[in-house]
Design a protein that fits this description.
single chain, 360 residues, Isopropylmalate Dehydrogenase, binds nicotinamide-adenine-dinucleotide, binds 3-isopropylmalic acid, binds manganese (II) ion
Length: 360
């Protein structure tokens, strides 16, 4: 079968990690008899440089027409980049928000799993790690603070900036349903994270999540305040199965969860619509501090490509093979710098991609 993938390398380390994910997909294609064809699309800083906007209508159309999208990362060194001091809709990150909204990718699935092999790279104490952890963060991706009205203006002689946080019950319901559906295939525990002691949007969140939970009597639902959740993640990560939360909280908590897996370079993600269409992207950014050095960890992107095989193409066996190859390379002691520990062998971005591809 032929799969048409829109590929968005983006900025910084984006092109380096995308190269490795394509290497792995091509290997899957050869071994299992599929053809993956790639249409490259510009987004982020590279698109601003080429067209003056972070995402052109044509780019969005190409993504819409594809079978799925594979994204590296966008953005520069925030604050210091030539793309910083411009109107909000002209920043690299605006391209990312526009493609998420334009493709209706409201469900961001971020699995945080501790490979036994990476226990040494995890900053938590052994007693806390226990038998490890395996959670999925279900982050709402097209609502909340990211998409509310924004302004900066002088009010009574004082510069004032406003960002608004809005959720309606439909937006909450559809992400909650996805979270409960995923929980049914896992350990059947949902922890919904909010700030219902302060925010109206969180109170509505809680109410709607409770309504959805009624349709899933086998799933245990617990609510947790977001500040407590940030603490619980490093105190007892093993308690989490599915973490359901809104856009901004999910952004922050997923970076925290990534570090306890060893590195943000390990955290994959899928951004899905109602059905099987998705954009697959590592949870990390363009890492301008290490771009162009061939040292970034490509595993988050490679595992995101595995999620593409599973969720968009129903190629479970192929996805399993990619995940097993990652595990094998780690168990053989190969590490990029970010997950390096004593006794292991340090490899570059491209060597890591080669090693994983060879094991499929
Ligand atoms: P970042 O995730 O890019 O980097 C944070 C730190 O983690 C850096 O020290 C970086 O070197 C390291 N890191 C990230 N990915 C790594 C990898 N694969 N291997 C090894 N180390 C890795 O976050 P940031 O520095 O806050 O943001 C940089 C830029 O990326 C900003 O412009 C931001 O807006 C953008 N960003 C984009 C996305 C995306 O496109 N999905 C996500 C997050 C941030
Ligand atoms: C992520 C990123 C993005 C987000 C930024 C770049 C807009 O941090 O995918 O986690 O906050 O969603
Ligand atoms: Mn983020």
């Amino acid at each position: 079968m032929n799969y048409n993938i829109a590929v968005i390398p983006g900025d910084g380390i984006g092109p380096e990690i995308i190269r490795e994910a394509k290497k792995v997909l091509d290997r899957v294609g050869n071994v299992y008899g599929h053809a993956f064809s790639y249409t490259e699309v510009l987004m982020g800083g590279v698109s601003i440089d080429a067209y003056g906007v972070p995402l052109t209508d044509e780019a969005l159309e190409t993504a819409k027409k594809s079978d799925s999208v594979l994204l590296g990362a966008v953005g520069g060194d925030v604050g210091n980049s030539r793309w910083y001091d411009v109107a909000p809709n002209l920043r690299p990150e605006a391209g990312l928000l526009a493609i998420r909204k334009g493709l209706n990718l409201f469900a961001n699935i971020r699995p945080a799993y501790l490979y036994e092999e990476l226990a040494q790279a995890c900053p938590l104490k052994k007693e806390i790690i226990g038998d490890g952890f395996d959670m999925v963060i279900m982050r709402e991706l097209t609502g909340g603070l990211y998409f509310g009205e924004r302004s900066t203006k002088e009010v009574d002689g004082v510069m004032t900036a406003v960002d608004t946080l809005t959720y309606n019950e439909n937006e909450i319901r559809r992400i909650a349903i996805k979270a409960f559906d995923i929980a049914m295939k896992r350990r059947k525990k949902v922890i919904s994270v909010d700030k219902a002691n302060v925010l109206d949007s969180s109170r509505l969140w809680r109410k709607v999540v409770e309504e959805v939970a009624k349709d899933y009597p086998e799933v245990t639902l617990k609510h947790m305040l977001v500040d407590n959740c940030a603490m619980q993640l490093v105190m007892n990560p093993g308690q989490f199965d599915v973490v359901l939360t809104e856009n901004m909280f999910g952004d922050i908590l997923s970076d925290e969860a990534s570090m306890i897996t060893g590195s943000i370079g390990m955290l994959s993600s899928a951004s899905m619509n109602e059905g099987k269409f998705g954009m697959y992207e590592p949870s990390h950014g363009s890492a301008p501090d290490i771009a162009g050095q061939n040292i970034a960890n490509p595993i988050a992107t490679i595992l995101s490509a595995a999620m593409m095989l599973r969720f968009s193409f129903d190629l479970d066996r192929e996805a399993d093979a990619v995940e097993a190859a990652v595990q094998k390379v780690l168990s053989e002691g190969f590490r990029t710098g970010d997950i390096m520990s004593e006794g292991c062998r340090k490899v570059s971005t491209s060597e890591m991609g080669d090693l994983i591809a060879e094991r499929i």
